[in-house]
Amino acid sequence: MNPVAMTSTPILACWTLSLFGAASIAHAAPADEATPPVREDAPTTPQTAQSWADALELGGALRFNHRYEDWSSSDKQQGGGDIDFDAFYLDLEAEKDDLFLDLSYWFKDNDVRVLEHGFFGYRFSSRSRLEMGATFEPFGIMPYPQFGWTFNIPFYLGMGHNTALGAKYVYEGPEWEAQVGFFKNPLSLDTRYAPNMASADDVDDAFLAPTNSGQANEKQNQLSGRLVRTFQGDGWESRLGASAYVGQLHNDTTDRNGSYWGTELHALTTFGPWQVQLQGIRYVFDPENPEGVSDDSVLFAGPGTPSYRVAAKGTVGVLNIAYDLPTPRLGPVKKLRFYNDYSRLVKDRSGWDDSQMETVGVQFFALPVMGWLDVTWGKNMNMMGGMPGGVGLASADAEGSGEWELRTNLNIGYYF
């Protein structure tokens, strides 16, 4: 579920607010003009001794959703679906000298409250910085692994738009981009934005089959790295990248540590109105489960969604294509983006069928209003039709396996 517009360089469109009245974010008032007088006997705190930020940038969005699912037999789906609240979120960025803060907090449907990201850091220069807190793991296509509103398979494997608690160094130059980070553990299940590995003890939902009850693995001590090289020519640009991570899988039942790792290659190419994203991922989870618990799959979960199992070893392929069409005669709609996102998971375990997702759609830009219309097909995807035991991304041997399911989704939001 893509939270922001996917422009040529995907960023959130927002207005900036000055912390000090009418001054703009780029020309904040000097500290001696912005800070009120302080009594000599007043306690010295960051709030009274000096301004806590030189610049403040506030943004967010209010979004609504219409969805139709062909597998649902509910009355509202038979009637063509309903319009529902999707999300309201706030983004905050602040700077003080070389220190900075960046966070995004979401209020979602079904009473879900999550920290999409939240970190502070230090800028060594205009090109390098250190981030600490709930920061994005440096892996794969960033910031989003697709063009559409509907996330694709890497997101559900914890390999796209995923945050964890740790520290990350970032270098962004004109040709090279490098990131390296250490992450102690993911965010808790009720706080994380994206799905990630979970212990059965922390999950309580109807999709948790008895065979999942022994799943007690949690990620910890992950080391990640990402390197990207940019090439440019006459009317085109290509970004070639590689990423890798390795970490421990701690099993709460056996109190032993297994391991996990993943690596990927990707290419992002823009030529004229066309954009193409290619990616290949290889990953392995090697848990130390107790006797009687299969090592062939691991348990994943996200906030407000049923838990599901993921094949312990697999290969993922991604191909996304988009075309931008300026629309000067469509009033407030200044641009349309047509896209096709395809992803596929091939599982190592013999007899386990592949999982696939395909989304075709259009995004419209009428800032500050933006929207996506997605038509998505899914096969052996728990998120598309659901399966008893949540086995779509694993054994895919439950009712509904091997069938293509259809979902249409219209998301419209006001971004500020």
Automatic annotation (TrEMBL):
Keywords linked to the UniProt accession: Signal
**Signal sequence region:** 1-28
Output the SUPFAM superfamilies linked to this UniProt entry.
Porins
Q: Does the keyword Signal apply?
A: yes
Q: Does the keyword Signal apply?
A: yes
Entry protein name: Phosphate-selective porin O/P
- What is the organism field in this record? Chromohalobacter israelensis (strain ATCC BAA-138 / DSM 3043 / CIP 106854 / NCIMB 13768 / 1H11)
